[in-house]
Amino acid sequence: MSSSKLNIYNTLTRKTEVFEPIAAPFVGIYLCGPTVYGEPHLGHVRGPVTFDILNRYLLHLGYKVRFVRNITDVGHLTDDSDDGDDKILKKAILEKLEPMEIAQKYTYSYHSMLNSLNVLPAGIEPRASGHIIEQISMIETLIEKGYAYESHGSVYFDVSAYSKNYQYGELSGRITEELLAGSSRRTLEGQEEKRSPNDFALWKKADKNHIMKWPSPWGEGFPGWHIECSAMSKKYLGEQFDIHGGGMDLLFPHHESEIAQSKGCTGHTPAKYWVHHNMITINGQKMAKSLNNGILVKDFFTGNHPLLERAYSPMNLKFFILQAHYRGTLDFSNEALQAADKGLERLITAMNTLQELKPSRKGWNADLWKQKCYDALNDDLNTPILIAHLFDAVKAINSIKAGLEIIDESDLDSLKKHFPLFVTDILGLQNTAMPSANNKENELIELLIHLRAKAKTEKNYALSDEIRNQLSNLGIELKDSKEGTTFSKK
């Protein structure tokens, strides 16, 4: 196991810090889950994959992890502010279904996506609609402490009152005075109920036609988007927990408002570490309805989309995501996905080859390689560097198989243990990258590559060339590199 500690970037402090749990060996993680009103698209993939790596690695290090990921099934309005229609309610009207039918239908779709990507299930998956009592209780506390006010049956968080004691904007770096100055220069429709345009809804009054509504001390209504996560994280992880995760798009106003609500109630920030993954772009552009460049996850698996040249497997998509650091922007392209497909095939092939290797005398150092892999993970979950080290092992495995490199028994045992551990247990990549019908064919090709490498070592170049030419006639191209020989099919 690793001889160093996990370091992770904390958005709240804007620096990389050694991860020190509040109450080791227990670790509490809260991840903002989806608003379930449509099929999951490419933008929904990176968060679950990123925090699955974190969850898996913490479990591997021996921590007892409580992983909470919510389902937003009420209160998230169409423009992500306090106006417009509830996203789920709007979709229910379009599909002529009950709102909870919509929520259930697309929750199933979300779970199906997670299963296909081999993402571990959350320990707790609370729904916003099932925690109305907790949200009302938190709102009442904020009113009692002077950080919220009722207006015409709705309740709003008072940013100005909060800013007298705390800093609204500490997570995003936005200055309250600038926010207030900016809001004073604009007039927003439907803002007359608020004392300030920066105030945000904790509870919204429902009109007579609104289906999703609950009784409250302020009349029938429904919760605001931000209060849901504050209430549910507090219920299952306590007033203070270790890690709060989500996408950069949630940093402001969602996570900023979560901090304000929780701090207004308890006097302290709910999470010690705030971890944010970056966005996925498509051919250099942000995904947007106006650009018509959104791709549903299920489209990747069928290839049924104008931006896709062919179908891609779930593991292909997952490996593509892991090749970029989670805090960097990741740009989709068919070329990048196809390159990831070939890279993943090499990993899986090497993992199968590894089990066939026999030890010889002292040679390749597996312990040094293992520590480099752990160092990459400890460096803010640096999956691109980890993958580079895995390919170093691929090169060694191929060289050992070809008789060009040696390895002793203890190093081989270590390699056989840790290579699959990093690939399958921590990265969560399954040995299903290649279609099962092609496995025997691929094994035969690898055998011929091995025989060709042996022929070259013995300087039997005529046999080496014959193997290459015969494979080429069958539509199989060999590519020699310093990392070994790979093949592709015409």
Provide structural commentary.
This protein is of the alpha/beta class. The protein folds into 2 domains: 7-277, Rossmann fold, CATH 3.40.50.620; 334-434, Anticodon-binding domain of a subclass of class I aminoacyl-tRNA synthetases (Four Helix Bundle (Hemerythrin (Met), subunit A), Up-down Bundle), CATH 1.20.120. It has helices at 46-60, 87-95, 99-116, 132-144, 159-163, 176-184, 225-237, 251-266, 297-302, 314-322, 334-354, 366-378, 383-401, 409-426, 439-457, 461-473, and strands at residues 7-10, 15-18, 26-31, 64-69, 148-151, 154-157, 200-205, 221-223, 241-247, 271-277, 280-282, 285-286, 330-332, 476-481, 484-489. It has a 4-stranded parallel sheet with strand order 4-3-9-10, sandwiched between helices. β14 and β15 form a beta hairpin. The radius of gyration is 26 Å and the shape is elongated. Mean pLDDT is 90; it is low at 181-189 and 433-437.
Short overview:
This protein has helices spanning 46-60, 87-95, 99-116, 132-144, 159-163, 176-184, 225-237, 251-266, 297-302, 314-322, 334-354, 366-378, 383-401, 409-426, 439-457, 461-473, and strands spanning 7-10, 15-18, 26-31, 64-69, 148-151, 154-157, 200-205, 221-223, 241-247, 271-277, 280-282, 285-286, 330-332, 476-481, 484-489.
